[in-house]
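Tokens for chain A. Residues wanted.
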């Protein structure tokens, strides 16, 4: 089969890495890709949001399967347009992708389908949002309703911070049109976890549960980021809790979408807070999570291409999936200044010197003058899979020691919740 992966980050590198292991793969393309992906796929300089050019590329290269990595083209309706041309695409239709594209839609959907989540209000008017702050206790959470590259969620400790956040989102347009509508909700307490479910709308397969690290600094301090690391499995998700999540959240989500006429196909990401009263949904994503994918896919023993084809063909119920024992860890190496402004073009050394068993997934890299350089905020995802979480951690951090670039920044406490839980 000829496969095209759409996107250019660490998630897409991981998808390409796993798809390249399939015996059924003949040719692998990525648009636009990055310096790491170029080692395993033919990178084509077409941006992920240029749906027309991507469609033309599929026709020219006779692509058998398109795998869409980022959320923006999914929310823009790439699957609808490709399917109309007879192309096979792994990902949800535009209406179902609203679960990520509009946090207001997602919250109303959860309320309408009795899916546990934080109490909330939705506001399009700045003055009304300000007045509503009196209805909440602090800390509270303010979310830009639209897509904001994982940075549109602000935890506000007090009213002054909340007022500043509302002004930045709704008046100053810090997140562009994404902040024209905001969600204000209670701040849930507990431990976060992520579930990635592959589904054809009726049947589903849950991949190994994982935990992301959203905050920039050790100890879960600092601003939210796109994710500074992840590990799988997350021991907070016990078998009993996994069953409860499927029964109370995943199945009602798929059923609710089906009732809308928006049967979901692809990867459904459910971000959870495990509270004292049980799991509650923080957010949905309509695609593989990043960086969770970099820790979750190394745990998948089965052929990912087979799994995706079974999904697009609507026969997932007949598909058996196997997983590796042990654990996997990803630690993100970021540019100095991220998630704010940062410099690009910093040469990266040591990529060929990482220990055996370490996989380096490129997220924000480019090639310049025959050298790999930084080109994004999150630069690399250093990943290791081993028979134990501690061994995987040690291996990943030894890989980090081998890699250097100016301004290199990373968290030093990835997976420490799990280490403490396991004693």
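Reply:
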């Amino acid at each position: 089969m000829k496969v095209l992966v759409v996107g250019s980050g660490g998630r897409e590198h991981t998808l390409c890495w796993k798809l390249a292991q399939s015996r059924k793969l003949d040719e692998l393309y990525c648009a636009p890709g990055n310096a790491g992906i170029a080692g395993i796929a033919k990178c084509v300089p077409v941006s992920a949001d240029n749906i027309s050019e991507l469609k033309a590329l599929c026709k020219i290269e006779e692509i058998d399967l398109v795998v869409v990595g980022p959320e923006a083209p999914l929310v823009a309706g790439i699957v609808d347009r490709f399917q109309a041309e007879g192309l096979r695409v792994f990902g949800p239709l535009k209406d179902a992708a609203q679960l990520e594209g509009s946090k207001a839609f997602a919250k109303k959907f959860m309320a309408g389908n009795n899916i546990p989540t934080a109490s909330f209000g939705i506001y399009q008017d700045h003055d009304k949002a300000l007045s509503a702050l009196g209805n909440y206790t602090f800390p509270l959470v303010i979310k830009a309703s639209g897509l904001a590259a994982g940075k549109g969620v602000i935890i506000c400790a007090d009213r002054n911070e909340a007022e500043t956040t509302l002004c930045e989102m709704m008046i100053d347009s810090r997140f562009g049109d994404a902040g024209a509508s905001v969600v204000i909700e209670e701040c849930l307490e507990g431990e976060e976890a992520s579930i990635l479910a592959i589904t054809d709308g009726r049947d589903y397969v849950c991949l190994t549960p994982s935990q992301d690290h959203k905050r920039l600094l050790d100890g879960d301090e600092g601003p939210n980021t796109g994710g500074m690391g992840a590990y799988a499995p997350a021991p907070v998700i016990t078998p009993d809790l996994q069953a409860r999540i499927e029964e109370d959240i995943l199945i009602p989500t798929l059923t609710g979408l089906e009732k809308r006429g928006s049967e979901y196909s692809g990867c459904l990401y459910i971000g959870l807070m495990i509270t004292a009263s049980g799991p509650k949904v923080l957010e949905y994503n309509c695609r593989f999570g990043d960086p969770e994918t970099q820790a979750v896919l190394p745990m998948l023993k089965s052929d990912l291409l087979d799994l995706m084809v079974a999904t697009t063909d609507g026969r997932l119920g007949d598909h058996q999936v196997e997983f590796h024992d042990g654990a996997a860890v990803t630690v993100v190496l970021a540019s100095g200044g991220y998630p704010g402004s940062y410099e690009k073009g910093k040469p990266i050394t040591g990529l060929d010197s990482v220990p055996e068993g370490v996989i380096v997934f490129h997220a924000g890299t480019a090639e310049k003058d025959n050298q790999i350089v930084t080109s994004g905020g999150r630069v690399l995802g250093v990943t290791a899979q081993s028979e134990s979480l501690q061994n995987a951690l040690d291996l990943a951090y030894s890989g980090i020691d081998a890699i250097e670039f100016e301004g290199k920044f990373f968290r030093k406490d990835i997976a420490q919740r799990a280490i403490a839980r396991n004693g």
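The mean pLDDT is 96. Residues 239-260 form the longest helix (22 residues).
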